[in-house]
Amino acid sequence: MTQVKGSTELAKDYYDSPSADAFYHEIWGGEDIHIGIYESDTEPIRDASSRTVKKMASMLPGVNQSTKILDIGAGYGGAARQLARLLGCQITCFNLSAVENNRNEEKNKEQGLDNLIDVHTGNFEHITFDEGTFDVVWCEDSILHSDHKAKVFKEVGRVLKKGGHFIFHDPMQSDDCPEGVLQPIFDRIHLTEMGSVKWYKELAADAGMEEVEILEMPEQMRNHYSRVLQELNKNEENLLQKGCDQEYIKSMRKGLQHWIDGVNNGYLNWGILKFEKI
Known about the structure:
Blueprint: H1 7-16, H2 18-27, H3 45-58, E1 68-72, H4 78-87, E2 90-95, H5 98-110, E3 117-121, E4 134-140, H6 149-159, E5 160-169, E6 172-173, H7 183-188, H8 197-206, E7 209-216, H9 218-234, H10 236-242, H11 246-264, E8 268-269, E9 271-277
Parallel strand pairs: 1-2, 1-4, 2-3, 4-5
Antiparallel strand pairs: 5-9, 6-8, 7-9
């Protein structure tokens, strides 16, 4: 009998693929794979993505060299390197994709930050660290890939120290999103469900965490995917030369428009959420 893969396993296969690696490495600049906070319609994706990290870091007062941060779904490790430079703290990256993890380690060495950043391969539904290990758990646009989001929150709550913080952002559906309207997005990235602010607040409470701050910015999701679509159209030939196949580019172009339309119709949400372990 053939075993059906879940969303997390499919995400690993996707991010390990040559087409995805070429796309994210070239379009985002090989540092980040998350939504940026934009100040203009033409701002470079990398600059806006960096601003998201800085905004999240500003929401973590009291971080110092002894602070231990776990970045789940860390991608290429761009946030970890930025945090290491900004705050001088120890960061552990925990991520499924071997391709991304290899690039992460290479960049850490190139930038002289491998003494502050450890890279581990794993599934954030089963975090392989002891209870109460970390002061902060950090996550950027990764939880949506899990079919077992309650498990992710339980694991985060388990590895956080009392008084520690879980800070993340994630593409979400709006709290009043009509049933079925997001199916094209679900089909495109193999989702069975999507979180919402209301649901994530409930999951956090069930995992022993309380709300500290929530910043909803759905317009930044539209800004981001619009910019990515612009860059994809402008750099198609280069992407083909770097290993993206034509079918991937065609599918990506269609998928990006689904995200843009979802925001414009009021069906999608995005923002930064911060909770504290009680």
